[in-house]
């Protein structure tokens, strides 16, 4: 039976990962010249931090339940929002910017590539910690064959990932425009709630890089199925949020005060 001490080893690893990321960001800030290369490194660091922590959150969810997992994720989401700066560790934010005409396809592709490199390479660091087996919850996990999280029909899974991503992005845009006092907490609560709601159906990733780093090649999904659910599903949902957010109907429903004041 999992104990608080074993949960402590997971919390320690997550905190250590965040500390390493802080140090890496500060080194990049001091040593790199402003420009695309510096931004790419920031994206790689953010993706590595995200995926490193979420690998350990799998341990937390498996041994301590989804409620404990949700508390960790809620806290981490707020932390990341305050420390990543302009980095997003998420591909569809740049796809939205392409639609908006804010970034070129080349720059977006490079940043997505940097995210993938950071997210996928971090597993060796995670694997090393698991290999030491400080806690019983890590026993056998370092070299264990992974299993896909999709528990529903392929297209239903893609719909779940896409619809939840759409909701997340719309909520974030509304909170940002309203400049809510506790916006970061509200945004984190909404995102975490949607993840928990989808957890037993698609896994609730809502981020293609995160899903690929944690579950690419796992038993239960082919490469094409993974792409349809976690890349096409999420990215379509995010891109749809751009025109939907601008519609009069949506703005009257969720930004009524803002619209009236204008």
Automatic annotation (TrEMBL):
It is found in: Membrane. GO terms for molecular function: channel activity. It comes from the Eukaryota. The keyword Transmembrane applies. It is a multi-pass membrane protein. The chain crosses the membrane at residues 6-28, 66-85, 184-207, 227-245. Keywords: Membrane, Repeat, Transmembrane, Transmembrane helix, Transport. Coiled coil: none annotated. Belongs to the MIP/aquaporin (TC 1.A.8) family. AQP11/AQP12 subfamily. The keyword Transmembrane helix applies. GO terms for cellular component: cytoplasm; membrane. This is Aquaporin.
């Amino acid at each position: 039976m999992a104990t608080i001490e074993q949960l402590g080893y997971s919390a320690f690893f997550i905190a250590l990962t965040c500390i390493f990321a802080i140090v890496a960001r500060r080194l990049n800030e001091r040593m790199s010249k402003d420009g695309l290369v510096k931004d790419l490194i920031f994206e790689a660091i953010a993706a590595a931090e995200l995926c490193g922590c979420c690998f350990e959150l799998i341990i937390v969810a498996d041994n301590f339940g989804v409620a404990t997992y949700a508390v960790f994720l809620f806290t981490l989401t707020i932390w990341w929002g305050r420390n990543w700066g302009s980095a997003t560790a998420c591909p569809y934010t740049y796809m939205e910017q392409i639609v908006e005409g804010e970034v070129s396809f080349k720059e977006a592709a490079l940043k997505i590539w940097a995210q993938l490199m950071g997210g996928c390479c971090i597993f060796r660091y995670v694997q090393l910690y698991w290999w030491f087996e400080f806690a019983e919850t890590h026993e056998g996990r370092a070299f264990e064959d992974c299993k896909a999280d999709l528990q529903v029909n392929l297209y239903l899974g893609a719909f779940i990932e896409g619809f939840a991503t759409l909701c997340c992005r719309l909520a974030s845009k509304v909170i940002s425009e309203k400049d809510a006092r506790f916006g970061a907490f509200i945004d984190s609560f909404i995102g975490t709630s949607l993840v928990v709601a989808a957890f037993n159906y698609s896994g609730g990733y809502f981020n293609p890089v995160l899903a690929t780093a944690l579950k690419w090649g796992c038993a239960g999904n082919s490469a094409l199925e993974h792409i349809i659910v976690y890349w096409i599903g999420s990215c379509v949902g995010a891109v749809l949020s751009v025109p939907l957010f601008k519609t009069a109907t949506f703005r009257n429903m969720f930004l009524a005060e803002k619209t009236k004041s204008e």
